[in-house]
Amino acid sequence: DQQVKQNSPSLSVQEGRISILNCDYTNSMFDYFLWYKKYPAEGPTFLISISSIKDKNEDGRFTVFLNKSAKHLSLHIVPSQPGDSAVYFCAASARNSGGYQKVTFGTGTKLQVIP
Amino acid sequence: NAGVTQTPKFRVLKTGQSMTLLCAQDMNHEYMYWYRQDPGMGLRLIHYSVGEGTTAKGEVPDGYNVSRLKKQNFLLGLESAAPSQTSVYFCASTIIPRLTEAFFGQGTRLTVV
Description:
heterodimer; B: seven-stranded mixed β-sheet; globular
């Protein structure tokens, strides 16, 4: 039961254009959403997050949009740069009975930015 | 990610062998986690710890044990390795009980033959 889905395993974008990475979720209890970036042979690094009370969060070239009614999350990268080439994981969290924020990860989308 | 160090980076085990993966963080974080990453599966939580001396099960705890005897170290043990445990293992730590701005180690690639 994949509660967080990234249906596009890969995406290729020209340098300078917009990259849009999508994520869908099924659990309405998720209240916080995160994007992580991962380069080969490295651990994931936190990129940007958004609370369920917001519909947009921006940080430089990265913007995350949340559509709660559609249970859909997207990450926009503008403009895309070759250094953005990496695997991007969407993640969602919900508080469990012990107060811990259980995080569920998507399967990842490999972004390639072509110079 | 100099703050979280995993040892070893690679390991090949025979079925039935045991081993311990070490995660060390120098950021004084309370929360530490062990994840495994498998193709087409994303990252799945094995065990986590909310502080020194405490551990809890995650999504896929079977076949693994953990210990957090010191705040800076989180050990993941495989008592009797199975081919299904072939994976890349990531340790992470956070200062708050949320994976926002979590620091991950560089990963341990384990192959069980």
